């Protein structure tokens, strides 16, 4: 069942939920998104390390990388793509990853300070003036998105350019994307657009095309940033079946409460018993 | 402590959480005050300044946000019809490029022999540079050579301009020419000079024939010799648009790149074999009668009859008739049309020099880029196309051996795959459909690069894909204004607007130069108007009819003075002073070692750049210091480093890859000593003129009488760029701006700094600054900026209509004849005399534009036709022939005894040895094919990317790409190091083993290729050996472009030696391969 996270977070009148649809089938791996994001958000560079992992020298999302383009070289043809010669039945997948802005966001659930919060656009943002650097959010994220910045000691991740949204501008990554692989808009509209695109890709013979994160019934209640992928999510370093890590917290608390009550009752009984 | 009630209490998050709707405290209740007051700096900026990206030549529009006189943000301008607001990573990094920590703001000076820099006051530096220019000029002045006036200095050279504004290029060319400097060059030489020759001779103008947005109308896009998606990502959106509309996208490339990843078909090809591939398609089209007959008959020279004594390369085993083996050059006499004389671009013959030889060495081919060649007489035609001497039949015979089997043997492309390319291309050509070719330096940078482009021109003419929507040939250029630095050339062989520089042995007077006695046809006939107006722009009232408008004051050429000749002149000690203006030859030019050794032999060097590039610091930390070949204390070169201003710190125009001039406005003044090139050249000229004031020495007259009174503005006395643009546009005798080049006159009443740019300041309005949003216009977007010629966006568009003036098809209509109005009309500005009807036929004695008929769409050509066969203008043959690169492990399968282009330019030197090739002894020691290229994340020599952290981190080390098979053969380990060796030098690189580098099978032999990005060098945040340490100086004889896209090499695991061991390694390999000064020198 679809949940409107902004309403659930106390916004009575609020704009439509906004998000990203990243169509990796048109990504040219240029990394403009990585740079535009860093420029706008003043994110520092993430180290000058040669990885040898195809053209990916950023490796993963982190406190200092809020958009990350994965490069996957695969010995298999790309559907409608004509492989050319034998031995070149080959494809090079590229995909720009980003914070998913989950409907059920574990990072937000575990944040003890209120630094992580839900915006009126339904996105999840760190308030670095509040964050105390406890780091609970880091392991809570099922995608490994959020990190703690070494230099400042506070958590950092994609804000979906919250400040730009506030003045009616699209996020920097989507703005710069040369081929419109990163599309920004109202989530409902993006989901419809993505469904049409998927249909088109399948009709063109790209059987491996699939959507990822679009389903409101998945383990995180659907994501605000979702993707059209050309292979299994694991291939791109994405969890196949993400679950909000705080899903079991209520039942855990219930169990703990019962246990505590039983314990207290036992102690009381023992104390009362010893007096009698 | 004070309590702030009740408002303060209300802002207490806990209270908000308890009383508000956000009971869980994960949304509205926990917002901080800072979050509530967050505002985008785009909204808070004081002003938004319109600009253009300074990297490649797509010309993406930028919005520059300024707050408190500081640039705080740069992003794409969504109004642009080209970029639609998008930017690639480099464009997105321009804030860091322009405001980051890597920039220097202090002028520096290195005295002769000194171990380090010292700071210097900017004014002092300017004064010292002016003194050195004057002294070197005096010491090296040459009035004549062999009795002919030269009026020049060969002691000073300049390099750079493609990253600069048109106005800056104009001042560089103007001032240095007036000082008698002829060795003026820029990146256009090393990137696309062969484009000017190839496109210019074929169609009449040397620029890309179409514009990026029009790609969306193509039915088939063949990208070959270009890594479009990586090198021009934002332009690539139009390929994606075409693909979304159903177009077939084909990428022909040695590597599977990010372009291939998005293409429908990738065709792996051996680097350097493209003429064989294209020739194969031409043969397929001709032998299967698949050409667009009506188009070919009317619009090309297919029907024209050639001379009887013409001999094809197929008749003479790889040589055309007219070859002179002693000079390695051709006389083009036998290549002419029957009964006609096609006069070489610039004039009368001189008994002392063979005119073809002059043209050959002096880069005359490039002048064809805009003005074509003149002709006398009327060509004889055979409209049945059956005469054995008509061009079409000659073409058929010439390409008959370019069979699918030859394509496989030369290119490694299997016949079945080749057939698929032929099918896609031909099925998508014709009245209803169009196909487009896209290329870049993968075609231009070869020892026969001009012929690569010629081959594509022939093919597109045969298929009728010229002048039509979705057709044409898109030359992707790689610097923000490299088209502009060709148009307003900081090139030795050209004057503005592709007017040739005069030659000492041929052009003694203005009349001789203008060929006053010759009959001219086409727009070439108006050259006197253009040249006299240029001389008036430079020398004002002192240029009069009675003094030949000061034609004498132009220094003269005596041969090739290209940047590579300059390097030789530096090594020989003739060239003593050198300006580097935004160019980094120590990394970016072929044979980087020779570039540095040349500079080490200078008296003085001025480097203007954003930071200390390799060309500024080689004397203290260059590779030759490490090997011991040079010692800092022995190097007598004085070096000045002057920090340059960025595009946000100056106003001016860039000309993009499609001839479109876009104005960028100054956002802020540059800090510290940083200054624009406009400032530098203007004030250098001012100081020199002040120092020379009163001189009666005739050598000083050209600079003293130069019009050099530009208004200045601001605290730094920056020249007003728009005043320079106004001079480029030109004015009439009343000082009113001219509306277009048709208004130019040869009587001295008009002045114009560059005739093809005439109209850019029409009505006193800066047309290049026009920014009518794309959404308010058709896809042509004629009111966004301004393009030459005459704001036409798709050139030769008369060919989009049938000979009778009606569109070939509704689907592909663009420009057509409106009989009722009596004029050409359509979506684009007609590239044709607007009122010349389709049925107009010239009188036999007609001259100039009147000599062209109503069915002659190539109006710059003397015969109005697209040239399938080039009777003049291409010095190494009228038709393309497959030759092997200078260094190649493959024996030429087409002409086994003619391995290399016989007319290539060679520079024998101990540091420029060739590798043995083909079956020659020792060739096995350099068994692999190397190709060099760009990455999306970097820019040219890295000077504008390896210093920018956001870009540097994305590709942080030099690497080589090899196939798994090659890795196994040589024991190369992924992620480890490899050393690559040629007869010039050796470098090391990290190894990327990837299936994206296919091993090719040709002639029963497996050929492995090695990919090397050319961006790395020893300076900056990320470093590595430069690929150009390996390349040789071997040039295309037409354009003098170097061959860096294909050469041979050895590769071995491990790092290269340090110190003298490196030179030992290279020499040892040479010795074992038997390399001598004769290697690779044969005809």
Automatic annotation (TrEMBL), chain A:
GO terms for cellular component: cell envelope. One of its GO terms (molecular function) is metal ion binding. [4Fe-4S] cluster 4 binds at residues 111, 131, 134, 137. [4Fe-4S] cluster 1 binds at residues 27, 30, 33, 177. The keyword rRNA-binding does not apply. It is found in: Cell envelope. [4Fe-4S] cluster 2 binds at residues 37, 158, 161, 173. One of its GO terms (biological process) is cellular respiration. Binds 4 [4Fe-4S] clusters per subunit. [4Fe-4S] cluster 3 binds at residues 99, 102, 107, 141. Keywords: 4Fe-4S, Iron, Iron-sulfur, Metal-binding, Repeat. Its main location: other. Residues 18-48, 90-121, 122-151 form the 4Fe-4S ferredoxin-type domain. Its cofactor is [4Fe-4S] cluster. InterPro entries: 4Fe4S_Fe-S-bd, 4Fe4S_Fe_S_CS, FDH_Electron_Transfer_Unit, Formate_DH_Fe-S_su. PANTHER family: FORMATE DEHYDROGENASE, NITRATE-INDUCIBLE, IRON-SULFUR SUBUNIT. This is Formate dehydrogenase iron-sulfur subunit. It comes from Nonomuraea wenchangensis.
From TrEMBL, chain B:
Its main location: other. The keyword Metal-binding applies. It is found in: Cell envelope. InterPro entries: Asp_de-COase-like_dom_sf (IPR009010), Formate_DH_Act (IPR048158), MoPterin_dinucl-bd_dom (IPR006657), Mopterin_OxRdtase (IPR006656), Mopterin_OxRdtase_4Fe-4S_dom (IPR006963). Pfam families: Molybdop_Fe4S4 (PF04879), Molybdopterin (PF00384), Molydop_binding (PF01568). One of its GO terms (molecular function) is 4 iron, 4 sulfur cluster binding. SUPFAM superfamilies: ADC-like, Formate dehydrogenase/DMSO reductase, domains 1-3. One of its GO terms (biological process) is anaerobic respiration. Belongs to the prokaryotic molybdopterin-containing oxidoreductase family. This is Formate dehydrogenase major subunit. The lineage of its organism: Bacteria, Bacillati, Actinomycetota, Actinomycetes, Streptosporangiales.
